[in-house]
Amino acid sequence: MPKRDEAKPAPEAGPTGAEVLAYLRRHPEFLPRHPELLGAPAEGEAIVDLRQFLVRRLQDEVRTAQNDFSDLVATSRANHSAQSRVHTAALAIISARSFEHLMEVTTSDLAVHLDADVVSLCIENQTGGTVRAPMRGIRILEPGAIETLMGKKREVLLRPYVAGDPILFGPGAGIVRSDALLRLDMGHGAPDGLLALGARAEGQFLPAQGTELLTFLAQVLAVSIRSWLDLPEG
């Protein structure tokens, strides 16, 4: 005769919330002895950690954006300042009252307008003989010297760290630690020319800087020289 299945005992029910509350009231020392019971469950800890991670990442992104904005503002201000300086220098050039005044503006005033310490107008000697510079700030170069310095096509050369070259800067070369060299195209039959800007601060002229403004300035100066000397265009 088959045996009847014995009835399985029903699982004991856990304490109700009211019973737990009543127990804690009767034993107020229980929770202080077991503080781990008051901590957030593992899932809660993960949520809190994720929230903190997201907050930190957002804060980092905000700081990065603020730094980028500050850099952009600084660059914009520097570009505006450079543009203003070059425009002022160009106006001084075209406002010259004579060729001699133009040479004075070029070799003296441009240093102030362009925040340079030494400025030279360099001209290659095409005569084959000895030529003396007609005035201070003008340097006479050997034929081919400009191409040796700048190559055939480069219009502007920015050098952040140099020892001043006496050939370019004469007695002022000793203070030059950074320079900008601007090729001057003064027209067909005219000697090759170069405007040399020297600064005592290392890194003042950086290759990463834009050269459009300096190219424009070189063109203005070349056209002015050509006009005063009545030279044909190239």
Task: Explain the overall architecture.
Helix content is 47%, strand content 12%. A hairpin with an 8-residue loop joins strand 4 (178-184) and strand 5 (193-199). Helix 3 runs antiparallel to helix 4 and helix 3 packs parallel to helix 7 (212-229). The longest helix is centred in the first third of the chain and has 53 residues, at 42-94. By secondary structure, the protein is an alpha+beta fold. The chain is rod-shaped. The mean pLDDT is 82.
Helix-strand blueprint:
Elements: H1 17-26, H2 30-33, H3 42-94, H4 99-113, E1 118-124, E2 138-141, H5 145-150, E3 156-159, H6 166-169, E4 178-184, E5 193-199, H7 212-229
Parallel strand pairs: 1-2
Antiparallel strand pairs: 1-5, 3-4, 4-5
Helix pairs in contact: 3-4, 3-7
State the main characteristics.
about 230 residues, alpha+beta, Beta-Lactamase, 5 strands
Quick recap:
With 234 residues, the chain is α+β, with helices and mostly antiparallel strands.
Q: Superfamily at the CATH H level of one domain?
A: GAF domain
How does CATH name the architecture of one domain?
2-Layer Sandwich
Low-confidence stretches: none
Mean pLDDT across residues: 82
Q: How much is the radius of gyration in Å?
A: 39 Å
